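Progress narrative, Year 2. Work on DUF3017 domain-containing protein from Nocardioides marinisabuli advanced from sequence curation to structure prediction during this period.
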Amino acid sequence: MSDPAGGADPEEPSYDAAEQATSVEEIAEEIAEEEGRRYPSTLGGLIYLGVLAAGAVGIVLAGRDDWRLGVSVLAGALMAAAAARLVLPARDAGMLAVRHRLVDVALLGGVGGLLLFLARTIPNQPGL
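Result:
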């Protein structure tokens, strides 16, 4: 609240317009620098993009061509992600690190192994 006599309230902070403009400009520059980077910052991020690409190829193969091959490619991508998560330290794992290391490895490797097992053991069904 302002003083009835027209003075400023001593409890309210005073802002210098030039100081505020400088800080806004600095923030805008920092955001522009961060947005300019278009590459993963860790090895795990690069591996994650490779796993994502291999998974997409596997799904396309499963839908258009040989489903066993597509599921096997997808399983291989998940198992590669599990292996990378196992050997990379947490600071380098990037987007592969979602949970605790052993949980990530167990889930990725388990799902990949089950998909590979199913792709190899389901019998052919003639006529379908």
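The radius of gyration is 27 Å. The chain is about 65% helix and 0% strand.
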